[in-house]
């Protein structure tokens, strides 16, 4: 990874996006932390800054030195569901440096029976998911060998009940990843997806409740939920030189959940 390189993470205020931003900050000069919630993005920026201070206090050195006038992390408020989202993020990224890694880690999810699902909800899932990801990736100026990663879902191939909008959006997102990997191979830009299983994030705890979430985790093949840092590690691998010939791939990080669904009757 070259000096002066930029990583951009959409959804950096969330559990998985935040973990990705913190990991990439160890390898890139600047991380642009994008979230519709500016305060959440700024918390991730502060966490990155605190980690740098801790390293300095321990006598360690950052992996790369920031370029002239650069900041280790920068927050940006932008909503993936809004028209012009890609242009907003792309313009800010262009001010900060060549994009070596871009991560799209947002989605819109409503749990409701399909017969009750509104058109607006379905459209919102598609706008925040595949449409937002496409507009984001297209708006960036990639450095040679850049790695673009979408955070996908098992729902792409496993149509869970009461999640039609989310299922459909991830099905379309998968085709965005495959198509861009195909079309952009000749310019050396790699496009992949990381597909998490059930990951223990603050949002999941709010949705299910801490005790119910813990109980559900015990029913999973590994006896626990995945951690955001484990998803981020897969993103980091795809951004590395070791993955230099990987594009159009879907790296599953689910603790064998997708291969075990047929027997997980308690969930």
Automatic annotation (TrEMBL):
InterPro entries: NAD(P)-bd_dom_sf (IPR036291), SDR_DHRS6-like (IPR051122), SDR_fam (IPR002347). It comes from Kribbella albertanoniae. Keywords: Oxidoreductase. The keyword NAD does not apply. Gene3D superfamilies: NAD(P)-binding Rossmann-like Domain. This is SDR family oxidoreductase. The lineage of its organism: Bacteria, Bacillati, Actinomycetota, Actinomycetes, Propionibacteriales. The keyword Transcription regulation does not apply. One of its GO terms (molecular function) is oxidoreductase activity. Belongs to the short-chain dehydrogenases/reductases (SDR) family. It comes from the Bacteria. It holds the Pfam family adh_short_C2.
């Amino acid at each position: 990874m070259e000096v002066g390189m930029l990583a951009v993470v959409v959804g950096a205020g969330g559990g998985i996006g935040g973990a990705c931003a913190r990991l990439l900050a160890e390898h890139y000069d600047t991380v642009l932390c994008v979230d519709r919630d500016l305060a959440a993005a700024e918390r991730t920026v502060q966490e990155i800054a605190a980690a740098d201070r801790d390293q300095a206090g321990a006598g360690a050195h950052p992996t790369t030195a920031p370029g002239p006038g650069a900041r280790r992390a920068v927050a940006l408020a932008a909503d993936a569901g809004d028209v012009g989202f890609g242009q907003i993020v792309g313009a800010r990224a262009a001010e900060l440096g060549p994009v070596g890694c871009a991560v799209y880690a947002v989605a819109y999810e409503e749990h409701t029976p399909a017969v009750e699902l509104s058109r607006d909800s379905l459209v919102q899932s598609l706008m925040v998911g595949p449409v937002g990801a496409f507009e984001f990736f297209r708006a960036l100026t990639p450095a040679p060998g850049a790695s673009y990663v979408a955070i996908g879902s098992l729902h792409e191939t496993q149509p869970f009940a009461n999640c039609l909008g989310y299922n459909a959006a991830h099905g379309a997102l998968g085709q965005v990843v495959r198509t861009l990997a195909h079309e952009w191979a000749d310019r050396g830009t790699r496009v992949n997806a990381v597909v998490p299983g059930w990951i223990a994030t603050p949002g999941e705890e709010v949705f299910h409740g801490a005790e119910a979430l813990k109980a559900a985790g015990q029913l999973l093949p590994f006896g626990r939920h995945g951690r955001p840092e484990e998803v981020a590690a897969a993103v980091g691998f795809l951004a590395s030189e070791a993955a230099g010939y990987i594009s159009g791939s879907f790296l599953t990080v689910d603790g064998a959940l997708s291969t075990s669904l047929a027997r997980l009757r308690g969930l």
